[in-house]
Amino acid sequence: MKALIGVIILVVVVGGIYFLTTSSPEAPDAMENKDDAIMDDDAMNDDGAMMEDDDAMMEGGEKKVFDVTGRNFAFSMSEIKVKKGDTVVINFSSTSGFHDWSIDEFGVATKQVAVDDGTTSIEFVADKTGTFEYYCSVGAHRAQGMIGNLVVE
Fold first, then answer.
1. To 10 degrees, the CA torsion angle through 129, 127, 61, 49?
2. CA 62, CA 73: separation in Å to the nearest integer?
3. Number of neighbouring beta carbons within 10 Å of residue 29
4. Nearest alpha-carbon partner for 81 in 149, 35, 138
5. What are phi and psi of 9, to 5 degrees?
6. Are 85 and 127 in contact (CB under 8 A)?
C-alpha cells in the first residue's frame, strides 16, 4: 500500500515538474499576445471595428458620405473623389432594376437592392491611393457599363 502511495506521489511530482517546464516558455508569449489584444478606444471606429490602417489614423481623414443610385446599367455618379485616410460611406439605392455597389480593392459591397428595398449602406477607410473601379455585380451589369471610379488622392 505504501509503495502505491509512493508511486502516485512520484507521478504527481514528475507530472507537475513536466507541466511547469513545458508551459513556462509559452507563458511569456501568451502574455505578450494578451497585451497585444488590449486596444485603446482610439484604435476602434464608431461601430467597434478595428481601424484598417495606422496611416489612415495618422492622416486624420474625414468622413465622406455619398448618396449613389443605380438604374439599369448606370450609376448616378461615375466618379467619386476622396483623400487617403477618409472614411467613405456609400448610401446606395436603386431607381430601376436590381443592383449593388462593389469595389474589390477595399473588399466591400452593398446588399443587392431593388426599387422597393430602400437604401443600403457600407462604410470603409480609403487607405490606399489610386483609381479603383466600382461596379454592379448583378448578372452582366458590369460588362454592360454599370461602372464608375473611386479616386483616392
1. 170
2. 30
3. 9
4. 149
5. -60, -45
6. yes
What is the average per-residue pLDDT within 9-31? 54
Distance CA 124, CA 90 (A): 9
Give residue 39's identity as a one-letter amino acid code.
Answer: M
Instruction: Tell me, yes or no, if the pTM score tops 0.90.
Output: no
pLDDT band at 4 (very low <50, low <70, confident <90, very high): confident
At residue 48, the pLDDT reads 38
Output the DSSP codes for 68-122: EEEETTEES-SEEEE-TTPEEEEEEEESSS-B--EEGGGTEEPPPB-GGG--EEE
Alpha-carbon span 60 to 40, nearest angstrom: 16
Residue 133 main-chain phi, psi, to 5 deg? -80, 130
- Residue the block writes with cell 509503495: 3
Q: How many residues does the chain have?
A: 153
Residues in Cβ contact with 47 at an 8 Å cutoff, skipping those fewer than 6 apart: 123
